[in-house]
Specification:
This protein has 255 residues and is of the alpha/beta class. The protein is built from 9 helices and 15 strands. The protein is globular, with a radius of gyration of 17 Å. The two termini are 28 Å apart.
C-alpha cells in the first residue's frame, strides 16, 4: 500500500498521469493519492484582494477562505486531476476530506493560523471500500472540524493529511512528491537519507524552510505513527525507489 501526496506544481508536469498510471498498474488497488494546489489557492486569494500568508509552511486561513479552498481544491483542482486520470484509463474517484468525515481535524492555533487544522482521525474504512472495489481515491485535503458541534471545514496541509491517511491505512510507504528532487542537506547536496533528528536541525537552522519544513514534520509524524517508509522526491521518484530523500528514524545522515 502506497500513499502519494502530489504537490500542485508536480501535477502540472505533462509526465504526471503516465507515471502515476505505471505506479497503479504495478499494484492496482494499492494506491491512494492526496493532492495539493497551494499556488492556485494563492492566485485566487490575490485576485480577491487577499494576501496569502504562511507560518512554518502552513497557510493562515481566515473563515472567508474556507469556501475559496473548497472551490479551488475540492472543486477545480480535484476534478481536473480526476478527469486527467480517467482520460488515460485510471479508475479515479475524487473525494474531499469533508466527505463522510474522511479527515477529522481540529484547530492547530486559531490565533496564528486561523481555520487551519491538524488531522486527528481518518476513516480508513471509507478508503479501503473504494480501493477494494478497484477505485483510485484522489483526495482534497480539507478536513471536517471534528471538535465543533456545528461541524464546518478546516484547511489541512496536504502533507499532514497524507501522513495521517498513510498511518490510518497502515501504508508501506508514503511519498511526498514535490517539484524538487529531495531534501538538501548542510552541504547543499540532495541527501539520499536523512534522520528525523537531522531533519529537525535543518528546520531549526533555516536550511529547510516553508513547505519543505512542513514536509519534514509530516514525514516524522508518519514514521512515529507506524508508516513503514517515507520518501520526499520529485515526480520521477514514483517509478524509482532509490530517488529522493528517505526519511529514517536514526542518528545518521548520508549525503
Amino acid at each position: 500500500m502506497r500513499v502519494v501526496k502530489i504537490g500542485g506544481r508536480a501535477q502540472g508536469d505533462p509526465r504526471f498521469a503516465g507515471i502515476l498510471s505505471e505506479a497503479w498498474n504495478a499494484n492496482p488497488g494499492e494506491l491512494c493519492v492526496v493532492h495539493g494546489g497551494g499556488d492556485e489557492v494563492s492566485t485566487m486569494q490575490r485576485a480577491l484582494g487577499r494576501e496569502a500568508a504562511f507560518v512554518g509552511g502552513r497557510r493562515i486561513t481566515s473563515e472567508a477562505d474556507i469556501d475559496l479552498l473548497r472551490m479551488v481544491l475540492s472543486g477545480v483542482v480535484n476534478k481536473r486531476l480526476v478527469n486527467s486520470l480517467l482520460a488515460i484509463g485510471l479508475p479515479a474517484v475524487g473525494i474531499s476530506g469533508e466527505d463522510g468525515g474522511l479527515i477529522g481535524a481540529e484547530l492547530i492555533d486559531a490565533a496564528s493560523l486561523g481555520f487551519a487544522g491538524r488531522p486527528i482521525a481518518v476513516k480508513a474504512d471509507l478508503l479501503r471500500t473504494l480501493m477494494k472495489a478497484g477505485y483510485l481515491p484522489v483526495i482534497s485535503p480539507l478536513g471536517y472540524d471534528a471538535t465543533s458541534p456545528n461541524g464546518g471545514a478546516l484547511n489541512v496541509n496536504g502533507d499532514d493529511a497524507a501522513a495521517a491517511i498513510a498511518a490510518a491505512l497502515e501504508a508501506d510507504e508514503l511519498l511526498l512528491v514535490a517539484d524538487v528532487e529531495g531534501v538538501r542537506g548542510d552541504s547543499g547536496e540532495i541527501a539520499s537519507s536523512l534522520s528525523t533528528e537531522a531533519a529537525r536541525e535543518l528546520t531549526v537552522n533555516g536550511i529547510a524552510a516553508g513547505g519543505m519544513a512542513a514536509k519534514l514534520e509530516s514525514a516524522e509524524a508518519a514514521l512515529l505513527a507506524g508508516v513503514g517508509r517515507v520518501r520526499i522526491c520529485d515526480l520521477a521518484g514514483l517509478g524509482d525507489d532509490e530517488r529522493g530523500t528517505l526519511i529514517i528514524q536514526s542518528q545518521s545522515v548520508v549525503l
